[in-house]
Specification:
mainly alpha, flat
Length: 132
């Protein structure tokens, strides 16, 4: 009977192996990138404990408390020299010559006809002397 039981065990193992081979592999998981981590140049920085203690000793506690109190009482709104009720309403005059923005009127790159004529009259006598 051992021969039959050995054959039976061998056949069961073979069937299990064939079933495993016939089973399709699960589809691969879709690629999911890791969340973006911003580069932090200070991430790996460290300081010896002795240096940290020296820095803490350099500034007394009451000074740190006063700084924290001053910062807590600081205004958090937008600073402005002009009160909100007097804000300029005409904002369409920006970048227009003469509106106080520093822009100037356009200047032509070439001279007009009057300038060319007067230049010719002024330089005409010089050109006539060179021809002789």
């Amino acid at each position: 009977m051992t021969k039959q039981s050995d054959e039976l065990a061998e056949l069961k193992a073979r069937v299990a192996e064939l079933e495993r081979a016939a089973k399709p592999e699960p589809p691969p998981k879709p690629f999911v990138p890791e969340p973006y981590q911003r580069y932090d140049p200070t991430a790996g920085m460290s300081m010896p404990r002795s240096a940290l203690m020296e820095m803490a000793r350099a500034v007394p506690d009451h000074v740190m408390k006063n700084i924290a109190l001053r910062d807590a009482r600081a205004p958090t709104g937008r600073p402005s020299a002009i009160p909100q009720s007097q804000q300029p309403t005409n904002t369409s005059a920006r970048n227009v010559p003469g509106s106080g923005t520093g822009w100037a009127h356009a200047v032509p790159l070439s001279a007009d006809d009057r300038d060319r004529k007067s230049l010719g009259e002024r330089c005409g006598s010089f050109a006539k002397d060179d021809v002789k």
